[in-house]
Amino acid sequence: MFALLGTIQFKLITYFDGIEVNKATKFARHEVLDGKPILQRTGDELDEISIELAFHDYYCDPATELKRLDDARLAAEAMPLIWGNGVVEGQFVIEKLRVTGQTATRFGKLTSVSASVSLIEYVEPQVPVEAARARKKQKAPARKKGRSKKVTGTKVTRPGTTTIKNKDGVEFTKITRN
Asked: Rounded CA gap, 156 and 64, in Å?
């Protein structure tokens, strides 16, 4: 086995015909007065992998193999890409499938086909900070009713403040946390 994409197996001797891997980094250009622009790294691009395959009716049914690939493309689901040595490259989706018929029978059935499968890396979306806070707040234990921390002789004037009268009869406003 050369590689495994989800449940689709690419065999080294029978299917594999070449591979191209593209990895890139993004940079922002900041223009400066009377000088060359300054680059700032902003992150990595998604990895792209193109696998060249060859199908021949001598060792497989090209139409069946192409249907499996096209069904996986249409499903648009992320699948793990695992190389033959056991290294997991990551989660990928099939972005493009390019097929070229090489030979066919006199009745039009393809007997030899070359295909190019373009894969693009799939990364789980990051949870925004506000959503994470809301989720954390929902999981927090609720305050029990009737166990308030109010001091006798106090009145709430506006949210977040309390007016308190001390033992000498002097009123002052205290900022409180709810």
From this structure: 75
The pTM is what?
A: 0.63
Ramachandran class of 160: left when φ > 0, alpha when ψ lies in -120 to 50, beta otherwise: left
Phi/psi of residue 42, each to 5°?
-110, -5
Q: In what order do the strands lie in the sheet with 161-165?
A: 154-155, 161-165, 171-175
Residue with tokens 């002052």: 172
26-42 tens-digit pLDDT: 999 999 998 999 999 99
Q: What angle do CA 25, 26, 28 make, to 5 degrees?
A: 145
87, amino acid identity: V
Rounded Cα distance between 140 and 143, Å, is 9
